[in-house]
Structure formats: structure tokens, C-alpha cells
User: Which sequence fits this backbone?
DNA sequence: ATGTAC
């Protein structure tokens, strides 16, 4: 497997084993980003893949200046894991799918007290709270497939007999509007630390983090409500955000874009919808800029997925996976874009980080039912 | 990624 912490240049580190597929374009973007003014260190995670100008699956540490474009539009996007009291043996995907129904519409009036409590004052964006959105977002009921650390897992009130719920979503239109306003004013030059516009951006950013966390909580509660189940939040971790940090004795700004923090407790790193997810205990390390992968990482561009797969699979075939799980995705483009084939095998991603000494795996989670969208488009 | 832009 070789060395999993690769030093690509003085300031660029890549966390990946030799056999982890990383697209050349993503490495190029990593190097380009490392040359921004004030940029001190960048670290690519094993799920690194190309983004719009900047790579996804990476952490960036700068001093004196911060770069909203490096966090992207989905500020606060992240993963939440919940326990449920649903019996893993008596909850087949068909039954869950039927009971869940359609959760694409805005939350109704009965939810509005909780909505205003969790996410007050997001003018124009309140109606998206409690909805998953598109792209790689999902909510997934899972079985605990294997426990590697029984003590740690029991301490979280997780039980193999009960399903868990993993929610991946973000700040919907709110974060995008914050980035859009910022780019309109400042382009890609970034913000000088302590300037009025920087203070203003950080306040908006923090609002988007709160909104995104509230959104994940509302999605989970809404699903539990539909399923007639109870549950508790186990963890909620953002992977698109900027935080103040000290790296190599310097104070600055740690940007994460599709990079899970490794210095804030337990995390879940999901594979594709036809693959396992892993509950893990991070081992904080400056070498990875205190970050981990946020998923398996795309192997194929969204635009090429349908052409590559349409002859092999129908949408109906893609709604069932090799692990026996069901996928609710009535958007014919999205179901191809999110096909398991479009992603790297998650085991190679987890192994890279384990080998690099960045995490310990606690449990392996197996998908039962993934909800993407019932509405569809086109 | 998007209460999308075309």
C-alpha cells in the first residue's frame, strides 16, 4: 500500500495510498490553490476530486486572508448520524419506503415552531429546511454490519438490533446566496483578515452552519416522524467550513471543502449509495490539516455518468444495489450521476486513512434504504 | 450545490 502521506511539494500534502485513484486534474487544482496569496499548506484527502476551479476533498490553511470560494456554496454541508428504535430484522426496505412516502415538500405548519427555534431569521430560505436537496445529498437508513470496537459503539447507545439514520445535507440555497454575494463584490481575491467584509462573511458563514445543522436535524426528525420511530442524534459534523486554527505555530484560517474535521470527535464517512459507510474515531494530525475524507470521492464526472451506464442499467435496476438496499431517486439524471460505479470503493479511502494513522474504525454500516428524491425533474 | 440556467 506504500506511504499514505505523500508530500507533493513544500506546501502540498496528499493523503492517499499508491493504489487510490486520484484524477490528475484534482492534483493540478491542489497545486494551483496552494499558490494563492497567504496560502501556507494544502492537504488533499483520499476522496480528492476536481471541483469548479478548486478541488473537493481537501483542506487549505492560510494566514492573513481567507477565501470563501474555497468553502464553496454549500456552507455547512455535513453528516448527521441518528439512532432509531426501528428493529433491523423487521424493517425491510419495502416497508420503510412505503411508510416514508415523499419528503421533498416543505415542512408543514405543525413543524414551524421547531423550525423557528432551530434556525431563526433566514429570510427567503425557511421553506427549504427539512429537505435534502440534490447532488450527493441523501438520507439513509442503515444496519450496523460489523462492530470493531464494542465498547465505543455501546457508549453511543448504538445497537446492532436497531437501524441508524445517516443524513447528508447542507445549507441549501442560503449558503449559495452568501457565496454569490461575496464573489460579486470580491471575485476570487479572498478577504483580508479582520476587514469589515471579512467579519461580515464570517457572521453569515456561521449562520449558514447553524442553518445546515438545523436542516439535518429537521430531516432526521421528519423521517422518524413518518416512520413512527424515535431516535437521538449521535453526531453532526460539517465538512464545508472555515475555522480559525493554529498550524505549525502560525495562527490562520483552516478551510475545509469536502473534508471532515478530525479534531472534533467521532465521524461517519459514507461510501456511495451501494457501498458501506464507516463510523470512525479520528486521530488528530497536523499532517492532514486535522482533516479526513468526507466520502468515497467521485471517480467519474457527473456529465459522463449517464452515457457510461445507460446501456448497462435502467433507472429501476439502479434503485437496487449489490448490498440489497433500495434507492429512492426518481430523477433520471441524478440516479446515474449517483450510481455506485461513479464513486471510488470506500474501503480504499478508509484504508488509506487508517494506514496514515488518521483514524480508527469503530463500526461498518450497511445501507438499507437511501432517500434521494421522489419528485424528480426533466 | 442550486426554491438552478438554457
Assistant:
Amino acid at each position: 500500500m506504500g506511504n499514505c502521506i505523500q508530500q507533493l511539494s513544500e506546501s502540498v500534502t496528499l493523503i492517499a495510498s499508491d493504489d487510490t485513484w486520484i484524477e490528475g486534474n484534482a492534483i493540478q487544482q491542489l497545486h494551483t490553490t496552494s499558490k494563492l496569496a497567504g496560502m501556507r499548506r494544502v492537504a488533499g484527502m483520499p476522496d480528492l476530486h476536481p471541483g469548479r476551479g478548486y478541488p473537493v476533498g481537501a483542506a487549505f490553511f492560510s494566514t492573513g486572508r481567507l477565501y470563501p470560494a474555497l468553502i464553496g456554496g454549500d456552507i455547512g454541508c455535513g453528516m448527521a448520524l441518528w439512532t432509531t428504535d426501528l428493529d433491523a430484522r423487521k424493517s425491510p426496505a419495502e416497508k420503510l419506503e412505503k411508510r416514508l412516502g415523499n419528503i421533498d415538500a416543505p415542512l408543514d405548519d405543525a413543524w414551524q415552531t421547531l423550525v423557528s427555534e432551530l434556525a431563526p431569521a433566514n429570510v427567503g430560505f425557511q421553506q427549504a429546511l427539512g429537505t435534502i436537496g440534490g447532488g450527493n445529498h441523501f438520507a439513509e437508513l442503515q444496519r450496523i454490519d460489523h462492530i470493531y470496537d464494542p465498547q465505543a459503539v455501546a457508549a453511543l447507545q448504538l445497537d446492532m438490533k436497531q437501524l441508524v439514520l445517516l443524513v447528508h445535507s447542507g445549507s441549501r440555497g442560503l449558503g449559495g446566496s452568501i457565496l454569490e454575494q461575496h464573489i460579486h463584490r470580491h471575485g476570487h481575491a479572498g478577504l483580508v483578515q479582520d476587514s469589515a467584509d471579512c467579519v461580515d462573511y464570517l457572521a453569515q458563514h456561521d449562520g449558514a452552519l447553524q442553518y445546515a445543522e438545523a436542516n439535518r436535524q429537521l430531516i432526521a426528525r421528519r423521517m422518524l416522524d413518518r416512520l413512527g420511530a424515535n431516535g437521538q442524534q449521535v453526531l453532526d459534523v460539517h465538512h464545508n467550513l472555515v475555522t480559525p486554527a493554529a498550524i505549525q505555530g502560525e495562527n490562520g484560517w483552516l478551510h475545509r471543502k469536502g473534508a471532515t474535521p478530525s479534531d472534533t470527535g467521532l465521524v461517519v464517512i459514507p461510501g456511495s449509495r451501494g457501498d458501506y459507510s464507516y463510523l470512525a474515531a479520528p486521530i488528530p494530525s497536523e499532517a492532514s490539516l486535522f482533516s479526513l475524507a468526507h466520502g468515497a470521492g467521485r471517480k467519474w464526472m457527473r456529465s459522463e455518468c449517464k452515457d457510461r451506464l445507460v446501456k448497462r442499467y435502467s433507472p429501476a435496476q439502479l434503485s437496487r444495489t449489490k448490498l440489497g438496499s433500495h434507492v429512492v431517486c426518481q430523477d433520471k439524471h441524478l440516479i446515474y450521476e449517483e450510481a455506485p460505479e461513479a464513486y471510488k470503493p470506500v474501503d480504499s479511502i478508509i484504508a488509506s486513512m487508517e494506514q496514515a494513522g488518521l483514524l480508527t474504525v469503530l463500526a461498518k454500516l450497511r445501507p438499507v434504504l437511501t432517500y434521494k428524491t421522489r419528485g424528480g425533474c426533466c
